[in-house]
Design a protein that fits this description.
single chain; 831 residues; Rossmann fold; 3 domains; six-stranded parallel sheet; 35 helices; binds ligand 73E
């Protein structure tokens, strides 16, 4: 049943939202008009891509109007705003979401139907805007949705990558990367703003200029200049009371630069210089949690921070001349350490260009910046070589040295004579190759530092930054992640959304706690039936997609057991793999082995240079080949690895999952957000006590999840005692036989040993992520899953209890937490 307008009207929250007046006829007219006047085609000739384009442009007529109203409102009132700086915004597709947020989805669906078109098919034409790697980038996308929905003045700043995250395909089971081409034929959602271009210096040297009054100041003579061209993507809040912007910077060569002097070589060399400038925003670095210390990456970071800081100051100066007011008007949130260079950049502008006194400038910076930490993995903490810094950003290095010098005095005052404390806390890491530690610079400067789930934020205090915590006892805080229910329930699972409209009222969309209304009814047979029928429908849809993408036939009666996330050893796809091999072995050893048919589904990209991650993909593909073509398993076991996992594919997977795999080594997944999307859509979690799984267990009740494995404390203890994976290998015959299987050529005929390095890393390699230690407990959890699924009433009850308890994990709640504890922001929706 479609969400009836009358239901929506019942709720006060939705009631306040003025509905945009638009009939199906008007929408038809607008779309056909765009086909004619915008694209020079007509309804007969147009292909689906053209229909998509025309529909987007028709929607933009409403969006741009609301955008102007919002900008005038914010600018007119000179509101305090948050500036969310992120190297990644994993937006996915925008049409379906914009339509839902404008409450024009139904009308557009009808309009297109009258024109002989299916809106869902049209939405599928849109290329994903994949300007991010994974959770961190998708979080930024959910956050800007929530900021707009809640009516907060906010702007997202990022890079307008020409190529987002690579497209993945498989060749003989191995990952192949191809460039992503999301903008090949233009992007209807973005507006170029040449009037707001910025100029960015790089390289060169620093001169000390002596002033007449006896003082001095620094002048940075750049060796190169880039031009930053802003592209604005409107971000429509639910109900369209606010349309904020995401401003993405594209790099170009700067004509203002003195090309005659710089390029004595002439026209051709000048063109080559131009291409060099344009490489800066060419491509997203594909490394999740493993930053690469490449010069181009540092240039990217500085380029977008410099453009953004200048843009922020330009807006500030429109209404203000008093620098003490900057921290009243501006909060800058650093999404991980990637935009840290914004800190010395703001210092540089205030001290060198605005000629403010150092202490005054520093006091401003300390009130403007806040920093979010997303990971404890040591390899993910960014450190830049001092030599590289000196070459690319000589003035910034000087500024960092001065910040550090003054900070070392603070450390000396707290711990007199303690050089080890100084070494630990210094922004500069000493050694043969001296490094700038970006996280330290962030913690020293920021007025708040937050982790992304309760357990993670505690570990930030106790393990990552204990001395900083002692020094600044109120600085480190927690804001648990969340996901937007607009995309991750309303748009991606329309049937379950309609059920919730009926059961709890349509305003769950802006108040996810309302889902609790179904908890008392979890045993209700009629509700269970409707819930499970929807799940079945979604599984049938997914089965078609699986067939399309891989050729593998799967039954919607099987348990759909899904692990989708970046491929990383700490996320332990290899543990899932070991258990699949064990099931396969049980089925081969005993053809009557009694198990509920199970489909294991994977989606994951590996960083192109991450060998072990690529090996795990290869192994899973090879295992899938064998298992899926082995008649002896009688269809009880299937394995599929879907190629090119991305946001738009995720939207088809979460609604169809029975089991959500959240199996990281405890203490290593800072939060996770896929865990939340699965549970909202009624999947049961098999997971460790890690990241946000812990808070999910608090909300849902651990007894309604399949919790297994070592806790954070137990992991620490085992590592302290000295962990030996061979103890587990020799004591568990099934585990041993599974690992030994990898040494044969069973899965890679003619190539024995092709999978041996996975086994090696789990044994001789020391099994850093404790897969063997957690294996038995994981395998047991899966037996419980099998047993429970046989009782569909119990399963349905649990699924409802999971979904209904997910109110907390809504990104609106995260944003309200940021707004009150960190940003001190006030709402300014269009009245
Ligand atoms: O646990 C996730 C978390 O849910 C964490 O691994 C991820 O951020 C998510 C959102 O908070 C994350 N990504 C990165 N670090 N943590 C990262 C690091 C370097 C480059 C790209 C991404």
């Amino acid at each position: 049943k479609a969400p009836a307008k009358s239901t929506a009207k019942k709720s006060s929250a939705v009631n306040k939202v003025p509905e945009i007046e638009c009939t199906s006829k008007q929408m038809q007219q607008a779309i056909v008009d765009r086909l004619h006047k915008g694209l020079g085609t007509d309804a007969e000739k147009a292909n689906n891509k053209a229909w998509w384009n025309a529909t987007c442009h028709a929607v933009n007529e409403v969006v741009f109007d609301k955008l102007t109203q919002t900008q005038q409102n914010h600018s007119g009132q000179d509101t305090r705003s948050v500036n969310y700086l992120s190297l990644e915004f994993l937006m996915g597709r925008l049409l379906s979401n914009n339509l839902h947020n404008l409450q024009l989805f139904k009308v557009t669906e009808e309009a297109l139907k009258a024109l002989g078109k299916d809106l869902y098919e049209i939405c599928d034409e849109e290329p994903d805007m994949a300007l991010g790697n994974g959770g961190l980038g998708r979080l930024a996308a959910c956050f800007i949705d929530s900021l707009a929905t809640l009516g907060y003045p906010a702007i997202g700043y990022g890079i307008h990558y020409e190529h987002g995250l690579f497209a993945q395909s498989f060749q003989d089971g191995r990952q192949i990367e191809r460039p992503d081409t999301w903008r090949e034929y233009g992007n209807p959602w973005e507006i170029c703003r040449p009037e707001s271009i910025q100029h960015v210096p790089l390289y060169g040297y620093v001169e000390t200029v002596f002033d007449e009054d006896g003082g001095s100041h620094k002048v940075w003579h750049a060796g190169q200049k880039l031009k930053g061209v802003p592209w604005d993507v409107p971000i429509v809040g639910y109900g369209a009371k606010t349309v904020n912007i995401l401003r993405l910077w594209e790099s170009r060569a700067d004509e203002a630069f003195d090309w005659d002097v710089f390029n004595a070589g002439g026209y051709v060399d000048a063109q080559a210089e131009k291409s060099k400038a344009e490489t800066v925003s060419k491509v997203l670095y594909p490394n999740d949690e493993t930053p690469e210390g490449k010069e181009l990456r540092l240039v990217q970071q500085y380029f977008f921070c410099a453009c953004s800081v200048k843009d922020i100051l330009r807006r500030f100066k429109r209404h203000n001349t008093d620098w003490t007011k900057l921290s009243d008007k501006v909060a800058i949130q650093l999404n991980d350490t990637h935009p840290t260079i914004a800190i010395p950049e703001l210092m540089r502008i205030l001290v060198d260009e605005e000629r403010l006194d150092w202490d005054f400038a520093w006091s401003i910076c300390q009130k403007v910046f806040a920093y979010t930490n997303h990971t404890l993995l040591p390899e993910a903490l960014e450190k830049w070589s001092v030599a590289l810094f000196e070459k690319v950003l000589p003035r910034h290095l000087e500024i960092i040295y001065e910040i550090n010098r003054q900070f070392m005095e603070v450390v000396e005052a707290k711990w007199p004579g303690d050089d080890s404390k100084k070494a630990k806390l210094s922004i500069i890491e000493e050694g043969d190759d001296r490094k700038v530690c970006m996280a330290n610079l962030c913690v020293v400067t920021a007025y708040k530092v937050n982790g992304v789930a309760a357990v993670h934020s505690e570990l930030v205090k106790t393990d990552l930054f204990p001395e900083y915590h002692e020094l600044f006892p109120t600085k480190l805080v927690n804001v648990t992640n969340g996901v937007t229910p607009r995309r991750w329930l309303k748009a991606c699972n329309p049937k379950l959304a309609a059920l919730y409209d009926d059961e709890v009222g349509a305003d769950w969309v802006v108040n996810l706690d309302k889902l609790r209304g179904v908890l008392p009814k979890a045993k209700d047979v009629a509700l269970q039936k409707r819930f499970m029928d929807i799940k079945k429908d979604n599984k049938i849809e997914l089965a078609k997609i699986i067939k399309d993408l891989t050729g593998v036939e799967v039954s919607a009666d099987a348990i759909f057991d899904i692990q989708i996330k970046r491929l990383h050893e700490y996320k332990r796809q290899q543990l899932n793999m070991m258990h699949i091999l064990a099931l396969y072995k049980r089925l081969l050893d005993n053809p009557d082995y009694d198990m509920v048919p199970r489909v294991f589904i994977f989606g994951a990209k590996a960083a192109p240079g991450y060998h072990m991650a690529k090996q795990i993909i290869y192994a899973l593909n090879k295992i899938a080949d064998k298992v899926n073509n082995d008649e002896r398993v009688k269809g009880k076991l299937k394995v599929v690895f879907l190629p090119n996992y991305r946001v738009s594919l995720a939207e088809k997977l979460f609604p169809a999952a029975d089991i959500s795999e959240q199996i990281s080594t405890a203490g290593l997944e800072a939060s996770g957000t896929g865990n939340m999307k699965f549970a909202i859509n009624g999947a049961l979690t098999v997971g460790t006590m890690d990241g946000a799984n812990i808070e999910m267990a608090e909300e849902i009740g651990a007894e309604h999840m399949f919790i297994f494995g070592l806790s954070v404390a137990e992991v620490k203890e085992l590592k302290q005692q000295g962990y030996n994976p061979f103890d587990y290998y020799y004591n568990n015959p099934e585990l041993k036989s599974v690992l030994d299987w990898l040494d044969t050529d069973y899965f890679t005929p003619g190539h024995p040993g092709a999978l041996s390095d996975i086994k090696r890393s789990l044994l001789e390699g020391g099994d850093e992520y404790l897969c063997l230690a957690d294996y038995a407990s994981y395998s047991e959890a899966h037996l419980k899953i099998d047993a429970m699924y046989r009782d569909q009433a119990v399963w349905a009850e649990k699924a409802i209890l999971n979904s209904g308890a997910m109110g907390k994990f809504n990104s609106d709640r995260s944003i309200e937490d940021y707004a009150s504890t960190i940003w001190n922001l006030t709402k300014h929706p269009i009245s």
